[in-house]
Amino acid sequence: MKIPPPTLPVISPHERMALARIGTLTDPKRLRSLIENAHRLGNAAVERAAFLRLCFVQPEANPGTVEHDVWQSIHALEEMRREETGKTIRLSRTRQKIGRDGEAKTVSDLTMKSTPSDGFALLMDRSHPELTFEAVVMRHQLTFPATVITAARARLAGAGLDPDTFTNVPKGA
Question: For 173, how many CA atoms within 13 A lie in the half-sphere containing its CB?
Answer without folding.
Answer: 9
